[in-house]
Amino acid sequence: MRVMSKPTLLILAAGMGSRYGGLKQLDSIGPTGETIMDYSVYDAIKAGFGKVVFVIRNSFKKEFEERVCKRYGHLIEIAFASQELDMVPKGFSVDKERIKPWGTGHAVLVAAKEVDKPFAVINADDYYGQESFKVMANYLKSTEGKKGAFSMVGFKAGNTLSEAGTVSRGICTYNQDGFLLSVEEHHKLKRTSTGTIQGENSKGEVVEIPENSFVSMNMWGFTPDLFEQSKKLFIEFLKNSAQNNKSEFYIPFIVNALLESKYANCKVLSTPDSWFGVTYKQDKEVVTQKIKSLINQGVYPAPLF
Known about the structure:
Elements: E1 8-12, H1 36-47, E2 51-56, H2 61-72, E3 77-82, H3 104-109, E4 119-123, E5 126-127, H4 130-142, E6 149-156, E7 167-174, E8 180-191, E9 197-200, E10 206-209, E11 214-222, H5 226-241, H6 251-260, E12 265-270, E13 276-277, H7 283-296
Parallel strand pairs: 1-2, 1-4, 2-3, 6-12
Antiparallel strand pairs: 4-11, 5-13, 6-11, 7-8, 7-11, 8-9, 9-10
């Protein structure tokens, strides 16, 4: 009888937190100094993940390593990958004026050497919930040995807004069998005075977003062949967009391209969990209270580890 290997969790933690005003991925929101990503790691271990890879920046690597290894290095295999602006394929250079990172797609790509199994991708500063990790882990286990078998956990748009300001979300369309057709990035999403949700589509047009639309909160599932395909797409992106210092290579760009070419399919997984996270400094108090409530309900112990 074949024993299924445990999937890997890839946590994107290299962001600079410009709107938040600091390194929100290391900010404490739990009663004994826990971060949001600590709760994600706890949920991942419980769901059956066997390794966690953190994508970080060299500037805070030492502090990061010390913090996470001390908390749960004895419970799960830990690895690190650095994301820096100069990490581009041979033959390309980086404009000295560029400050903005290359984006989430590039963040995944730099971790290629640390991942050889089906893996999930999440943001360090987003809370996804225990059931979300369970459905993702189960699906990833079913994709072992396959190529182009992707997945994503979809959250309802109305449950992903911030009271502190506007947010960006990937609005998903999918077929009757639950497979993703496309993800379109929308910006400046907010709830209006009449209770509806409005945002700007990729053309800059103001549109209304249905309350129950599935949005991507960057909880993706991939098979390892994604890396080779992403490398080709990143080269294409650099040829077309590297001169624009604000352009970014997003995960949805990769997924859309591979769906369009028929290389991959992507199952949209549903979850009963509600998302929450810290986009703005004002979000911290809300998140802290939600974590406190989950602890009171017995979902999490305190201290967490």
